[in-house]
Amino acid sequence: MTDVYDTAATVSAVRAAAAMIAGHKAELTRLDQAIGDGDHGENLARGFHAVLVKLESAAPATPADALKLVATTLISTVGGASGPLYGTAFLRASTALAGAAELTPELVAAALAAARDGVVARGKAEPGDKTMVDALGPAAEAARAAADGGGGVREVLAAAADAAARGSEATVPLQARKGRASYLGERSVGHVDPGSRSTAYLLASFAAGATGAADDSDRS
């Protein structure tokens, strides 16, 4: 297990997140074909591949630097709404971690709250709108509760990942009120929101980095 979640651990988690998204690219594409443009998996996988390329020559000095690299790369390489939204999430999280050499439970909770608030401000979505907020919101709340309850970084990230997964599943009966899916009206009901699913996968990667667990990037 990893007791210290420092820059090296953060970079390792980013690499794991890229592998997770690549492994689930087809699934995310299928989900988006049902209620969106059908390019979510491809776009996000391309963005994280670009992140890996950047990491070959970059040497982030802090966890915040690592997340800022992810943010700027996704914004510049991922099309549609996903690039700005995920970029904003990582950028706001990076700002919350500024100056820290390693993560603490309180910083993790603050970073996730900042990411959520950034996405809400950028996308104007609220809980229940069938968007990534429905995964990121519960994740931030669970992280705060775990940190306030005395949990360590591992516990806080695990709680966030579990809450995000449940939040994503809870989008199935919702009718989309934002984005391309909203054009479908009641036909959007019965489908998982692809942004919420990819959000859950990303958080699962960061949680796995804290626990030493293997990711499930080969599952689709």
TrEMBL record:
Database matches in SUPFAM superfamilies: DhaL-like
Example GO biological process:
glycerol catabolic process
One of the record's GO molecular function terms: glycerone kinase activity
List, for all copies, the residue spans of the domain called DhaL: 8-208
What's this protein's name? Dihydroxyacetone kinase subunit L
Q: Which residue windows are transmembrane per the record? A: none
Gene Ontology, cellular component aspect: cytosol
Instruction: State the InterPro entries in the record.
Output: DhaK_L_YcgS (IPR012737), DhaL_dom (IPR004007), DhaL_dom_sf (IPR036117), Dihydroxyacetone_Kinase (IPR050861)
| PROSITE patterns, per database record | DHAL (PS51480)
What are the UniProt keywords, alphabetically?
A: Kinase, Transferase
Q: Which Gene3D superfamilies match?
A: 1.25.40.340
